[in-house]
Amino acid sequence: MINNPVPLSAQTIDLLKQLGTATVYEAQGAFGALDSGIKPLSPTMKMVGPAFTIDMRPADNLMIHYALLHARPGDVLVIECKGFMEAGVWGDVLTTQAMTLGLAGIVVNGAVRDAQAIVDLHFPAFARGLSIKGTGKHQPGAINIPVTIGDCVIHPGDIVIGDRDGVVIVPPATLDHAISQSVAREEKESRFKTAIEQGATTAELMHLAETFRRFHLE
User: Fold this and answer.
1) What are phi and psi of 75, to 5 degrees?
2) 41 labelled as ligand-binding?
3) Is 113 labeled as ligand-binding?
4) Residue 91 annotated as binding?
5) How high is the pLDDT of residue 6?
6) Where does substrate bind (predicted)?
7) What's the CA angle centered on 170, arms 168 and 171, to 5 degrees?
8) What is the number of helices (H) and of strands (E) in the chain?
């Protein structure tokens, strides 16, 4: 079991939340995005933190209870339950424990329940959907191993960023580069917006005239 997350300062967390998932995804080379089925329970939810991964059986959340004995403040639980949608593996009681532990949020490749209670608690929860059905607590699994959601592999300690657009994963070794490229991208887009307000078009700013000609779109 390995969980040695990169320490994230409050300033770094705030900056990553401000930059947003779409910017970070594009800036780091258009990789690391979880599929579009993973969405926040509320559009205002944002989270940043190192991944604490859980690999578990569908419809059985024993390993979540075990993981909460080992997770650290600031962690994001990444719960791989194989995309199973007919059981809510997480609810308001687990949310209360996660908040008491100081966790930064959860990502569930499956369903959760007690959605309104979780939203009211302002705990960032990202999931594939909702199910009122319960789970067993009988099946073993593993914590802090690489897990795969869609075509994205998440390693323990990877930086998880979530907001209304979705979730993106950043390897710790490339976090500084991802941040610098994201800031540069934001500055470029800010210049574009100013130019557009002054009469420029996206077509000219992105030098699309030749592409239009190639497709006879003159």
Assistant:
1) -70, 155
2) no
3) yes
4) yes
5) 57
6) 91-94, 113
7) 150
8) 8, 10
120 is in an annotated binding site: no
Q: CA 159: distance to chain centroid?
A: 9
Strand runs (DSSP E) across the chain, as ranges? 39-40, 47-55, 76-80, 105-112, 125-130, 142-143, 147-149, 152-154, 159-163, 166-170
List Cβ neighbours of 143 (8 Å cut-off, separation of 6 or more): 1, 52, 53, 54, 55, 63, 66, 67, 70
**β-bridge pairing 152-154 and 76-80:** unpaired
Q: Is 185 labelled a binding residue?
A: no
Could you read off the pLDDT of 46-102 as tens digits, one per residue? 999 999 999 999 999 999 999 999 999 999 999 999 999 999 999 999 999 999 999
Ordered per-residue pLDDT tens for the chain, 218 residues: 445 555 799 999 999 999 999 999 999 999 999 999 999 999 999 999 999 999 999 999 999 999 999 999 999 999 999 999 999 999 999 999 999 999 999 999 999 999 999 999 999 999 999 999 999 999 999 999 999 999 999 999 999 999 999 999 999 999 999 999 999 999 999 999 999 999 999 999 999 999 999 999 97
- Has 60 been labeled as part of a binding site? no
Q: Spell out the domains of the chain, with CATH numbers in brackets.
A: 10-171 (3.50.30.40), 179-214 (no CATH)
